[in-house]
Design a protein that fits this description.
The protein is an alpha/beta fold. It is built from 10 helices and 10 strands.
Length: 272
């Protein structure tokens, strides 16, 4: 397992209320996990705990079998990158090139190697023609792709997308999801998507749904999206296409290749 939570409980300092209590789950290396929940369900807190930005109240977190502690958090954090909700808040450079270089400079990567990495990962995210561009001139999807390039340049094994498509238009969302597919299939990266949008679940290998600090659903996208009552009770609204698919599957009609139907509904949802 790449990451494992074992009976993790967390509450903020000064609060008597737990965000979650004895939470346990694991993520396989090279897979994609979608963590779904309404705003305030604690899903983003999970990302902060993984990154060592917050400490557990009790319980343990393991990264590739190594327990996350105060002593090793800086080393283990290098295995992970995070893409935040607002792309504008992630830029620190005056050009795309500067932004991708930022983390490399902080780690004192030799200049020749740095240039090679910048060129390599800018090309991977299709931003090689924008290296000297001011980030303010980029679309939301382009900004998020630059953030992905910056994370990849640091040789991260895991990339966390924390509501990273919530401020994008349909075209930008499609770009990011296509990039995620490339990261998984070509570069075998482990992906975690933290979101309140059920559409994100369609491209994941596995889906966890959080509600009131507990995992209420855990399974494949097909298994989870069938549980309409639990999803709605968790504050998650089914998109029209998924609602239609559930009604078809509950009917007497015999439908083959349900995965293909889901794929078609996904493409329809984000068709420009």
């Amino acid at each position: 397992m790449f990451i494992e939570f074992k009976d993790v409980s967390f509450k903020y300092y000064g609060s008597d209320e737990y965000v979650f209590n004895q939470l346990s789950f694991a993520i396989e290396k090279g897979s994609m996990l979608a963590i779904l929940g309404h705003n305030g369900s604690g899903k983003s807190t999970i990302a902060k705990l993984m990154m060592g930005l917050l400490e557990t109240t009790s319980g343990d977190i393991y990264i590739e079998g190594e327990k996350l502690t105060e002593d090793n958090v800086d080393v283990l954090r290098k295995k992970m990158g995070i893409i935040f909700q607002n792309p504008d808040n992630q830029f620190v450079g005056v050009t795309v090139r500067d932004d991708i270089a930022f983390g490399l400079e902080n780690h004192k990567i030799p200049r020749k190697e740095m240039i090679e990495k910048i060129d390599k990962y800018a090309k991977l995210v299709n931003m090689q023609d924008f290296l000297d561009e001011n980030p303010e001139n980029l679309s939301g999807g382009q900004k998020q792709r630059v953030a992905i390039a910056g994370a990849l340049a640091m040789d991260t094994d895991l990339i966390i997308f924390d509501e990273s498509t919530s401020m994008l238009d349909p075209k930008g969302i499609k770009e990011i999801h296509q990039m995620i597919e490339t990261l998984r299939k070509t570069y075998h990266k482990t992906i975690i998507s933290i979101t309140h949008n059920l559409e994100e679940a369609l491209i994941a290998d596995r889906v966890i749904v959080l509600n009131e600090g507990k995992i209420v659903l855990d399974g494949t996208p097909k298994e989870v999206l069938k549980e309409q009552t639990i999803l709605e009770a968790s504050g998650l609204k089914l998109i029209d296409g998924i609602s239609l698919l559930n009604r078809i599957q509950d009917s007497k009609l015999h439908i083959n290749k349900k995965e293909e139907i889901i794929k078609e509904l996904w493409e329809l949802t984000f068709k420009m």
